[in-house]
Design brief:
mainly alpha, 68% helix, 661 residues, disordered N terminus
């Protein structure tokens, strides 16, 4: 019976097994010769043979035979360190951690040499298997148990594993322990600091991240572009954009060349803020530094222009992007289309979709759902249905997102029965409705006064195990209250509380409205005061208007004014409905009747004192529509606050110039 003559031959065979992707080492056949088994090599002409019967793993064969130099099976072979290293890599890549520990134990017994490279392989495997604590434990065992010196490479590998799992506090704790250990004496490098700064920024501890950043040069580490971009991103997310821009200047002074990724962080932050002037200067600086804008740069710019409503400029930028051979992606088109939809120009968004398709792209589910929703909101239901049919004809299969958008749209135009049929079709095709789907359908039935079918939808939602969230509960409570079913609404309210679901402003306002409609205004006021005690659910103008109307209908105008004072103190602006409620009450429920001019004039003055210029201007607009002239002093104050002094002077100067000529 043939045997392997030396170590080199066996290692070659073992590597061949691993490279060809043969079964796990736990199931590899014995290396003894068999005339009925041949490996199926690529390009081989022999017929494939059936797999062999299970036999002991190679690792076990090697370990048991390696100590017996006279074994007939292995001859004089004894496994070397490289054989063990190959086994470690194989077991780590297959996440066979049980066999991995057996290999490590065998290496310890035979006093083999452990190298750091193999531990890093194992750290990465634990990371991919989402077992960060296993990586930490192995790191601690390296020197004591395996006599392998730890370096910064091992530290960084374990740190990265922990951070990839989102355990940022744990990463900082681990690093602090290692850094404080005098026995380890591991000096951090640039990568170490980058990982720590990333963890601190993710936790919102930007000032501590800056401290770590300033600690780098004294410890012999020069920050790189990743360091700067990570810290800039952290500053921008905290709203400290000016500091991030200053960091860009510092970066260049220190001789670190900014990359497009660095510029993109700042451009994205400025665009979200709507500061297009500074964004433009930053893009010019980017070109001066020889950094070519990429798709991320253009996407941020398109997003910024859309936020400002400058959609035509966004389209021009898209064309410029194409001319610069930078290919727009789904994000670019989706951002632009969403911008058109939000600005009430959904038809233009459809034109962008056609342009996308002409360039060889296909609209995704987010684009189609946005356009369909937009068309329905603009009252263009026929166009929405036509777009739906075109989408299906083009081979783009609708999914839950698109189906939900269409169902919501049909309910908006008072067609919940058609929407229900679509829900059945959706489920038959294997797409599961979500809470938004059911909530839209339930709201649609409530809007046409069909509370029976709305409640059936709620029950179907419960049966399908779809999560009842604050939105669905708010719709149910609001619908029941409007239908006069206060008892049922209270039951839903109590169920919502018992399940620990967060009460939102809509749920509170709906319940308050239900109480007020049932002449239980005091109960509504109790809920209102409960809202005031919860910062996350402060009343909005709708809540206040419900109470104003209820109190005025009870001739409790003085109490309504008290609530109005609370509204102003809480920083909530009145709207047209607020003004109309009080004007009607002063004319119809006060003896002698008042026209309300003095009341609204005083309201404007109080708003101006609180720097609520928008609310003041809306109130003035109501006064003018009702032919109620404000006092001269009030008018002058409003104009002064609405117009910027420089622009006023420029306009006067321009007019004077024209008159003189």
């Amino acid at each position: 019976m043939p045997c392997f003559a030396n170590v080199k031959v066996l290692k070659t065979c073992l590597r061949t097994y691993l490279k060809l992707g043969f079964p796990s080492m736990q199931t590899l056949p014995s290396c003894s010769y068999s005339s009925t088994w041949k490996p199926h090599l690529p390009g081989a002409t022999h017929e494939p043979q059936p797999p062999p019967s299970p036999s002991p793993p190679v690792s076990v064969d090697i370990f048991t035979s390696g100590t017996n130099r006279g074994s007939r099976k292995w001859g004089s072979y004894s496994p070397g360190d490289l054989t063990f290293y190959s086994l470690i890599e194989n077991y780590a890549s297959s996440f066979d951690f049980v066999s991995l520990e057996k290999v490590l134990d065998q290496m310890k017994r035979e006093k083999r040499v452990f190298i750091e490279k193999n531990f890093i392989v194992m750290f990465k495997a634990y990371g991919k298997a989402h077992l960060p604590e296993k990586a930490v434990d192995l790191f601690r065992r390296m020197e004591v148990e395996f006599q392998c010196k730890k370096t910064v490479k091992s530290l960084n590998s374990v740190l990265n594993v922990i951070i990839q799992e989102g355990l940022f506090n744990r990463a900082l704790e681990f690093y602090s322990d290692v850094d404080a250990s005098t026995s380890l004496n591991i000096q951090p490098n640039v990568l170490t600091f980058n990982l720590i700064i990333k963890a601190l920024c993710k936790l919102g501890l930007v000032d501590k991240a800056i401290e770590s950043f300033r600690e780098m040069p004294p410890r012999g580490c020069a920050p790189d572009t990743y360091t700067y971009s990570t810290l800039m991103d952290g500053l921008c997310k905290e709203g400290r954009i000016d500091e991030a821009v200053l960091l860009l200047d510092e970066m260049q002074i220190e001789g670190t060349f900014p990359t497009p990724a660095v510029f993109n962080v700042l451009i994205n932050a400025l665009c979200k803020k709507g500061d297009l002037e500074r964004t433009s200067k930053l893009v010019d600086n980017m070109f001066l530094k020889g950094c070519v804008p990429n798709e991320m740069t253009y996407n941020a710019l398109v997003h910024g222009l859309c936020l400002k409503g400058k959609l035509n400029k966004a389209v021009d930028l898209l064309n410029q992007m194409v001319s610069n051979k930078c290919v727009p992606n789904d994000v670019t088109y989706g951002t632009l289309i969403n911008g058109f939809v939000k600005n009430g120009r959904t038809i233009d968004g459809v034109c962008v979709l056609l342009s996308l398709e002409e360039r060889g792209h296909r609209g995704n589910e987010h684009i189609y759902s946005s356009l369909i929703s937009g068309l329905f909101k603009e009252g263009k239901s026929e166009e929405a249905m036509r777009l739906w049919k075109e989408m299906v004809e083009k081979g783009c299969q609708p999914n839950t997102i698109v189906y939900s958008a269409l169902i919501d749209g049909l309910c908006r135009v008072g067609k919940p029965d058609e929407a229900r049929k679509l829900l059945v079709e959706m489920k038959n095709k294997g797409y599961l409705p979500n809470s938004f789907t059911y909530s839209s359908l339930m709201k649609g039935f409530f809007n046409i006064g069909d509370s029976h079918n709305a409640i059936l939808v709620w029950k179907e939602m419960t049966a399908s195990n779809s999560n009842h969230n604050e939105v669905s509960y708010s719709i149910l409570i609001n619908g029941l209250c409007k239908d006069g079913k206060l008892v049922e609404a209270l039951m839903a309210w109590k169920q919502m509380l018992s399940r620990g679901i967060k009460l939102d402003v809509i749920a509170y306002s709906s319940m308050i409205h239900g109480f007020c409609n049932a002449q239980l205004v005091e109960q509504g006021l109790k809920l209102f005061h409960q809202m005031l005690c919860q910062p996350e659910t402060q009343p909005d103008v709708v809540t206040y208007n419900i109470l104003f109307h209820a109190l005025c209908m009870q001739n409790s105008i003085s109490r309504a004014i008290d609530v109005l004072n609370i509204m102003l103190d809480q920083g909530c602006d009145p709207d047209y409905i607020t003004c109309d409620i009080f004007l009607r009450a002063l004319r119809e429920r006060v003896n002698p009747p008042q026209d309300g001019a003095e009341f609204l004039d005083e309201l404007v003055v109080r708003l101006i004192k609180r720097q609520k210029v928008v609310g003041a201007s809306k109130t003035i607009e109501v006064m003018l529509q009702k032919f109620l002239l404000p006092k001269g002093s009030t008018w002058a104050t409003v104009v002064k606050h609405l117009c910027k002094p420089k622009k006023v002077r420029e306009t006067i100067r321009e007019c004077w110039s024209k008159l003189c000529h």
